[in-house]
Design goal:
This protein has about 350 residues and is α/β, with parallel strands linked by helices. Helices cover about 25% and strands about 20% of the residues. A hairpin with a 2-residue loop joins strand 9 and strand 10 (about 315-325). The longest helix has 14 residues, at about 195-210.
Length: about 350
């Protein structure tokens, strides 16, 4: 799902006509209990902190302070770890369990301004859990999460602090089935901004154009292909209120963005992820405005095309970190088995 916010299941009980969409404001009489739960989660995903980073570097290098379980085969790429002026998100010794199942067992990493990071590893090792903790949908049992240098205490709602927006894209597009594409993409603006209908409609059209979609505003999600739904979700994540005095930098979190797509559709989505990044150029030739992004994936094509740095999670710990080009040449037996798809190795099913 997406929108600089997000929704996990993407269901709404009835269609809302566009001309009355704002006046109704999704009244309680229209919405089921499950929808209200979705809306609550949706509005917690955008979070923020403190002031914009100073003295950002654009040389493409990375500074990564590895934990005791981490390793990179090219340490010459690591900048001085004390220079944290461009760190947007940091997890320090994060643990998370669900009942007796221990998911995360002390995770440490930083996401810096301008980075394109992939989180990989076997199924069930905590990759999606990490994204939800960063987004504020889950709290760690132990450890600390810092957003722009500010320690997060519990779940952060988008109106408590300002400085950084965080958008989470779930595995499914998570569109509201009974709303049109226009209403899906402009959802948060219709709900929370003071912008006019025409202003929002224009922004929706611009956001859709940025992901290569035109003339689909009045369609329902059921009329779209899987790849188109993913792109609508991406458009919803990058739209923002242009009447704000300052547009905050944004970090997008993608949870398996190419899951269920054929190879060609996957390539389209992977390229779009790159295009809306600040170092890219979107479908209409405009510079991207996403400061950094994190992608959870199993697909080798996504690893090759969409990210620059990789974090490998195994049994709830980071066992390797490195640049994308180091992935296939790593001597770490866990990484080598995952990269080759071999049945022989430490990863057992």
């Amino acid at each position: 799902m997406l929108v600089s916010l997000s929704s996990p299941s993407g269901m709404c009980p009835m269609m809302v006509p566009n001309d009355s969409f704002r006046s109704l404001r999704f009244s309680r009489t229209m919405l089921s209990h499950s929808y209200n739960k979705q809306r609550k989660e949706l509005n917690t995903v955008i979070c923020a902190c403190m002031a914009p980073p100073q003295n950002l570097r654009n040389d493409g290098s990375y500074a990564t302070k590895f934990n005791s379980h981490s390793k990179s085969e090219d340490l010459s790429r690591i900048r001085d770890s004390e220079d944290d002026s461009d760190v947007l998100i940091e997890c320090r010794d994060v643990y998370k369990s669900f009942g007796e199942k221990h998911i995360l067992r002390g995770v440490n990493f930083k996401i810096r301004h301008g980075e394109a990071v992939g989180i990989i590893g076997p199924s069930g090792t905590g990759k999606s859990t990490v994204l939800k903790i960063i987004a504020g949908l889950l709290t760690p049992d132990k450890g600390e999460v810092y957003i722009r240098g500010r320690k997060r205490a519990g779940l952060i709602s988008d109106d408590e602090i300002s400085g950084l927006r965080i958008g989470l894209v779930f595995q499914s597009a998570a569109l509201f089935d009974s709303l049109t594409v226009r209403e899906n993409v402009g959802f948060r603006l219709y709900e929370n901004s003071s912008m006019s209908e025409d202003q929002i409609s224009n922004l929706v059209t611009e956001s859709l154009a940025a992901v290569g979609l035109k003339g689909v505003e009045d369609r329902l999600p059921s009329e779209l292909s899987g790849g188109m739904k993913k792109r609508v979700a991406l458009a919803r994540s990058i739209i923002c209120d242009t009447t704000n005095a300052a547009i905050e930098p944004e970090v997008l979190l993608y949870d398996e963005p190419t899951a269920g797509l054929d190879p060609i559709a996957s390539t389209v989505v992977e390229d779009l992820i790159r295009s809306v990044h600040m170092k890219g150029e979107d479908a209409v030739g405009e510079p991207g405005n996403i400061a950094s992004f994190v992608v959870v994936t199993h697909q080798h094509s996504t690893i090759r095309r969409a990210v620059d740095r990789l974090i490998f999670l195994y049994e709830g710990k980071i066992v390797w970190q490195g640049m994308t080009h180091e992935f296939t040449t790593s001597t770490n037996p866990i990484v080598r088995q995952f990269a080759s798809g071999s049945l022989d190795g430490p990863i057992k099913y």
